[in-house]
Amino acid sequence: MDIFEKLKNVEIFKDIDEENLKTLLIELKYKVKRLDKNEIVAFRGDEIEDLIIVAQGEVYTEMQKLNGDSIVVDRLSEGSVLAGAFIFGKDNRFPVDVVTAISSELIYIPKDEVIKMFQKNERLLQNYLGVISDKTQFLSKKIWFSFTNKSINNKLIAYLLNNMNRNNCVLLKNSMKEIAQMFGVARPSLSRVLKEFIDEGIIIREEKNLLKIPSKDTLLQKVD
Question: What is the pLDDT averaged over residues 9-31?
Answer without folding.
Answer: 89
